[in-house]
Design goal:
With 293 residues, this protein is of the alpha+beta class. The chain is 25% helix and 20% strand. The chain contains 7 helices and 11 strands. Helix 4 packs antiparallel against helix 7. It is globular. It starts with 24 loop residues before the first helix and ends in a 5-residue tail after the last helix.
Length: 293
Amino acid sequence: MAKFRTNHGDGGKNSSGMIVRVGLFGAILGGLFFLFNQFTGGDSSDNSHENQETYYLPTSSGQIIHHQYYSLSYIEEHEQAEWVAYQLTKEELEQPWLARMDDFKEDPSIRSGSASPEDYKHSGYDRGHLVPVADRSFNEAAMSETFYMSNISPQSRNFNGGIWRELEEQTRYWAKRNGELYVISGPVLKLEEKSRIGDNEVSVPSAFFKVLLDLQEPQVKGIGFVIPNEVSYEPLFDYALSIDDVEEISGLDFFGELIPEDLEKEIEGNVNIDLWPFSKSKYEKRIEKWNKQ
């Protein structure tokens, strides 16, 4: 078993500049106020929602869809989203969870038609959620939206139930700890795919990413991950990257309209993993149990 580090030291990833103090908070709030008014006044997607916040969305090369509880960009060539984006709050996570429903269904919002649940049958791959069910278990409508096939991507069983599960659980812990996170997840479609499955020829990604942004004081910070679509026995923090690194690997631009320009380099170009506490017990559970299911 890999040694689990409790004090990471520098490790080539820490930067004291990541601790952005109160003096910068006014700039962030000012930027958010301006961008909220600029980017939420209109929406050109097919199913816009009143008050839909779009200022934190990444760049897109697909059809942007705004569901009630998350947004996505769908790539017809790969029959899946290139990213999903949403805000995850402590308040949502502390509400009573509903029992899980397995309600996989095609997404009627996709102009070209989404992948179908049948594409995954006998494929050897899980129907892996990009927006986790547990992130949206506070009401029935929110949970049901996570079962649109536009939110599903082919994932190896031991990846989906292993390190990806660990990252999802860590993300909920960090959201509770920090109060709120901006979350963007997706397949790394820029990398060579592993294969194709189903009648719709859904691409099987070779890796997945997740980026997280915390704009809550006193420590404004960001972190990213790129993890191969396969079983892993390494500690989760070994996959931690700066947001800039994930942008380079994925070919996407994250939070370009959210972070004030004078702070973007500082927040996206650095990662201090000591500001993101990792769970030794979850890692051990993954190695001893989750990877073997």
